[in-house]
């Protein structure tokens, strides 16, 4: 499990950024251009 945790930890930043970008894109599409 320590190996999985290590790999997951290293992949968290990249996945987080990708997810954040997708979430922001979805929110932007839903909210339109309110924040911009």
List its traits:
mainly alpha; 36 residues; 0% strand; single chain
Explain what you see:
- The protein is mostly helical.
- Helices cover about 85% and strands about 0% of the residues.
- The chain contains 1 helix and no strands.
- The model has no long low-confidence stretch (mean pLDDT about 70).
State which percent range the strand residues make up: under 5%
Spans with pLDDT under 50 lasting ≥5 residues? none
Structural class determined from secondary elements: mainly alpha
Question: What is the averaged pLDDT score?
Answer: 70
Largest sheet: none
> How do the SSEs run, as a string of H and E?
H
Residue share in helix:
over 70%
Cα-based radius of gyration, to the nearest Å: 15 Å
Report, as a whole number of angstroms, the end-to-end distance: 43 Å
Characterize the overall form. rod-shaped
Count of helical stretches: 1
The beta-strand count equals 0
């Amino acid at each position: 499990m320590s190996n999985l945790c290590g790999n997951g930890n290293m992949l968290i930043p990249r996945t987080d950024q990708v997810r954040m970008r997708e979430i922001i894109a979805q929110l932007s599409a839903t909210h339109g251009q309110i924040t911009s």
